[in-house]
Write a structure and sequence with these properties.
The chain is mainly alpha-helical. It has nine helices and three strands, in the order αααβααββαααα.
């Protein structure tokens, strides 16, 4: 059982987990572990990564139950991690990749967006991507639907 402070810290560090998931997905780590446990050094060589950096990613995801560290620097796939397999039904791989790129960067500006909305009393968030939509809405000549 975690205290409220511990729960909030876990939530606050969620960005690390989401980015680590994106890296593991981009590198197809789950597919590389489907045949059984492997050393992080083998995975790093196969994926052209720095072995210590990849080890930190793998340990972070092991703490979340995505992989399991079976012995020093050796990992295996867990039931949770199996959902990242490229042939898994309803795999969240593409969603993880998509949401942890441009949308992730937009959320880094969330405080700024919320503060601008409050000052201007506009009913929408002004994120970097919303400028184009506002332009199309207010200037129809920029729309492809003329």
């Amino acid at each position: 059982m975690y205290s409220p402070s511990q729960q909030l810290i876990h939530l606050g560090l969620g960005f690390m987990v989401s980015q680590a998931l994106r890296v593991a997905t981009d590198l197809n780590v789950a597919d590389r572990l489907v045949a059984g446990e492997r050393s992080v050094d083998d995975l790093a060589e196969e994926t052209h990564c720095h072995c210590d950096a990849l080890y930190r990613i793998m340990r972070l995801l092991a703490a979340e139950g995505v992989f399991s560290e079976t012995s020093a620097r050796r990992f295996q796939l867990t039931e949770l991690g199996a959902a990242l397999l490229s042939d898994a039904p309803s795999s969240p791989r593409d969603l993880i990749r998509m949401m942890n790129r441009e949308p992730y960067l937009a959320f880094a500006q969330l405080t700024h967006s919320v503060q601008r909305v409050c000052r201007r009393s506009k009913p929408y968030l002004e994120s970097p991507g919303s400028i184009g939509w506002r332009t199309i809405r207010t200037r129809p000549r920029y729309s492809s639907r003329r």
